[in-house]
Automatic annotation (TrEMBL):
SUPFAM superfamilies: Nucleotide-diphospho-sugar transferases. GO terms for cellular component: endomembrane system; membrane. GO terms for molecular function: cellulose synthase (UDP-forming) activity. It comes from Canavalia gladiata (Sword bean). It is a multi-pass membrane protein. UDP-alpha-D-glucose binds at residues 105, 134. This is Cellulose synthase-like protein H1. Mn(2+) binds at residues 268, 292. The chain crosses the membrane at residues 22-40, 46-66, 562-581, 602-620, 659-679, 691-708, 720-739. InterPro entries: Cellulose_synth, Nucleotide-diphossugar_trans.
Amino acid sequence: MANDGDLPLYEKKWLKPRFQRVMDTFILLLLLFLLGYRVFSINTFTFPWFLAFLCESWFTFTWIVILNAKWSPAITVTHIDRLLKRVPELPPVDLFVTTADPVLEPPIIVVNTVLSLMALDYPTNKLACYVSDDGCSPLTFYALVEASKFAKHWVPFCKKYNIQVRAPFRYFSELATTKNEESPQLMQERSRMKDMYDHLSQKIQDVIRKPVPSFVDGEFGVFSNTDRRNHPSIIKVILENKESFSDGLPHLVYISREKRPQYQHNYKAGAMNVLTRVSGLMTNAPFMLNVDCDMFVNNPKIVLHAMCILMDSKRGKEVAFVQCFQQFYDGIKDDPFGNQWVVAFQYIVQGMAGLQGPFFAGTNTFHRRKAIYGLYSNETEAERKGKLAEKMLIKQFGSSKEFIISAAHALEGSAYSADDISPSKFIEAATQVANCGYEYGTSWGNKLGWLYGSVVEDIPTGLNYHRKGWRSECCTPDPIAFTGCAPRGLLSTMIQQKRWASGLTVVFFGKHSPIMGTFFGKIQFRHGLAYCWITNFGLRSVFEVCYAALPPYCIITNTSIFPKGLGLCFPIALFVMYKVHTLQEYLSIGLSIRHWWNNQRMSIITTTTAWFIGFLSGVLKLMGISDNVFEVTQKEYPNSDADGEDENAGRFTFDESPVFVIGTTILLVQITSLTIWFLGLQVVQNENVSGPGELICITYLLVCYLPYLKGLFARGKYGIPFSTICKSAMLALIFVHLCRSTVVG
Ligand SMILES: O=c1ccn([C@@H]2O[C@H](COP(=O)(O)OP(=O)(O)O[C@H]3O[C@H](CO)[C@@H](O)[C@H](O)[C@H]3O)[C@@H](O)[C@H]2O)c(=O)[nH]1
Ligand SMILES: [Mn+2]
C-alpha cells in the first residue's frame, strides 16, 4: 500500500464557471419575477392561471436543481506514473460484461467489447473477464470461444504496437480513414490480423445463418433443449491463465444464470449480482469494472487511471466507484434524437463530481467490492467484526459456504494474491450461487449489490453507495475511456427514454429516493437535490404536458395566462435568455448550433411523449397494477454496405407505438386551436381574452413538433400510421370538447 507521505495519486480540481453562474442566477431571478407576477395578479384564482402557476413553480424548482448541480464542477487529474512506481501492488480487477439478446445485441459486438477488455494495459494475471448472457445463446458462447482463440494473436499484437483502439472492428474501420507512415513490419502483421479478424466474423456470421450441427453435442451440449426463459445455470471457463503469467491472457468466463418461469429475474440488476457472486468465488478481486456489451475500451490505460483514484491513500479511500462518461462512436451527426448526452455529462455529471460525486450511470464504472457488499464508508474495524459473524453473513449473502468465505475476505479487505487462482475449481459452487433460488431471503438486490425494484438499476445502486457515506469520482482521461453505440433510430430512443422515465419514477417515489437518502442517510443536501435532476425525468413530463395543453386551452376558451403589452416582455425575456444561455453552453464545448437546436427540440418531444408514457407506467407499477419490463436497446453493427442509409439517418420514423399517439395528439391540439383562432371560432368573452403570449407558445411547440407535422403527410416508415392519426384525432377532439364545455356548459 502507498505510504501516507507519498504524493497523491490523483488530484481534484474545482472549476469556477463564473459566467455560467451569472447567467444561471439571472434566469432564476426572471423565473421568480414571473412567479411573483402570478401571485399578485388579479387573475390568480382562475383555473388556467393556477395551473400555469403550478407548472412554473415546478420549472423554477427544476431550474434550481440544475443550477445547484452545475454550480461547482470538478475534474480529476490522475498520475499513472506515481501509481506505476508501486507496480507490485497493482490490485486484481474483475471485468463484467452483460448481454441479453443475440439478435438485438449481435455477438460480434459482444466479442469486440470482450477483446478490448482482454487487451487492457494491465498485468493480465490480475484481470478476469466475466460475460453474463441473459439470452442463454449458444451463438454468443460460440462467438466467445472463437474470439478467445483470436485473442491469443490480437492481444500481443496490440501491446507490441501500442494500439490505442483495441476493439478490432473499430481499429480496422478507423484505419481506413487515417493513413500514417508506419513500419513495414506493422503493416504486414496488421494485414494478418485483419485476415484473422475477418475470418472470425465470417465464422460467426455463418453460424447465425446456419447453426453448425456440433451445437447439440460436445461443449455446446448444455445448450440443447434450453429456452432462454427456462434453463439451468451454465458456467464455462473459456480461458484460464493457469500459470499466472503477467503477459498471458486474462481468465475468460461465460455465465448464463439459471432462469425459471416462476421466478422474477430482475433483468440487468439480477445479472450483475450473479456476476458479483461468481467472480467473488473465482477471483474475488477488490475492484470490478462493469460495462454494457457495446461499450468497448477506447483508452487501454483506463484501469490504471481508475486505480489512481481508488488506490489513493487519502481521498481515494472514501470512493466507492469511479464513473467514466458514456460516450458514443459513429453517433449520427448533430445528435438528431438527443441521445448522445454530451451536455448532460459535461455539465450535470461533472457538476455533481464537485459535490458527493457523479451518479452511477450503469456502465463504464469501476466499483469497490466491499462497498457493493454493503459496507459503510467509515466503518471501524470493530463495527465490521460484528458483521463478519458467520450467521450474519449467511443471512445477508446466502448459504454458499465458499461464497461466505470469499465475502468475508472481501469485507476485511485482506491481502489479495493473484497466484494459484484457478476459476475452474469453483464451477460447482459458482453454479449454486447463479441459481434462481439462491437469493431468496438474503439481502441481495435489497440492501446490497445491484438493487432491484426498478428497471433502472444504476441510479438506486449509486444512491445506495452515497447513502452509506461513500463518494464517487469521474475519470475523464484523454483519449476518452470507453465508447459505445447510442440508439440510431427514433423508436429505439423512445423505448430507452420510456424505460428510464418509468424506472426513475419508481425510484423517486420509492424507499431509495434521494429525498429519503438525504433525510435518513448520508447524502448531503446539495447532492440529494442534484440527484433530482435525473430521478425526476418522469415527473417532469406531467408539468410539461400540462403546460403544452394550456395555451390551446386558452385559445379555445378565449382566456389568457400571459400578460399583455409591456408585461409580456418578462416571459419573452426569460425564454430568450434561456435559449441564448443554453446555446452558449453548447458552443463553449465545441458543439454546433444544429446540435443545440436538435437537443432543444428533442427535449420537448421526449419529455411530453416518452417520459410521459414512462411516468404513467411507473405510476401503474407503484400502485401494483402492472409491472415494467426492461426492453433491451438495439445495438447496430456498422455495416459497410449500408452507407446509402446515411442521408436519412436523422429522419424521424414512426410506428403504431402509443408514444407517437401522444405526440401526434399534442400536435393536432396545437393545430386545431390555431385554426379556431384563425377562423374566429373562439368563445366570446369580454375581458382577459387570449393574445400573443399564447400564440407564441403554440408556434414554438409547432416548430419543435415539425418532424411530426411532416410525418402526417409522409408515407412508409417516415409517415405517422393512419391508425395513430385516427386515435390522436379522437383524443384531440375530446380535448377541444372538454375545453369548450368548461366555459359554454
Ligand atoms: O435482462 C437484461 C436486460 C439487459 N441486460 C444488459 O443491460 C445492458 C444495458 O442495456 P441496454 O439495452 O443497452 O440499455 P441502455 O438504455 O442503453 O442502458 C442504459 O440504461 C440502463 C438502465 O436502464 C443501464 O443499465 C445501462 O448501463 C445504461 O447504459 C446491456 O448490456 C444488456 O445486455 C441484461 O444483462 N439483462
Ligand atoms: Mn446501451
